[in-house]
Amino acid sequence: MRINVVHIAKLANLALTDGERVKFEKQLSSILGYVDKLKEVDTSKIEPTSQITGLENVTREDKTSSCFSQENALSNAKSKHNGFFKVKAILEE
After folding, report:
1. How many angstroms separate the CA atoms of 73 and 84, rounded?
2. Is residue 74 pLDDT above 90, yes or no?
3. Rg value, the chain, Cα
4. The pLDDT of residue 1
5. Which residue from 35, 44, 66, 92 has the highest number of Cβ atoms inside 10 Å of its Cβ?
6. pTM of the entire structure?
7. How far apart are CA 75 and CA 61, in angstroms?
């Protein structure tokens, strides 16, 4: 099976050297060949599952607790203004 790696790279906006093109073509062909082998496995009697470990999401109730005072939080700030951290602008208008 011949894979058009150049087309795939273009879709992903990647520039490939000739060496990379050959390397990735071989790798992708190998991967797709493995997927074709998996298609041969009879899974008709297997129940679909999202995970097999038996673990479940464990959550806890949110609780408030004591935290830093504003003064304490700002105590090591290099720059502050009116009780807030002062930082350089990251957005332009």
Report:
1. 10
2. yes
3. 27
4. 63
5. 35
6. 0.45
7. 31
Residues 15 and 21: their CA atoms lie apart, in Å, by 9
| C-alpha to C-alpha distance for 37 and 40, rounded to whole angstroms | 5
Cβ proximity of 22 and 2 under 8 Å: no
Q: Is the pLDDT of residue 88 over 70?
A: yes
Contacts of 4 (CB under 8 A, 6+ apart): none
Q: Please name the residue ranges forming H helices in 3-62.
A: 5-11, 18-39
d(CA 67, CA 38): 53
Tokens of 25: 């073509």
Position of tokens 């050297």? 17
pLDDT digits (tens, 9 = 90+) for 4-50: 899 999 999 999 999 999 999 999 999 999 999 988 999 899 888 88
Residue carrying structure tokens 């990379």 = 20
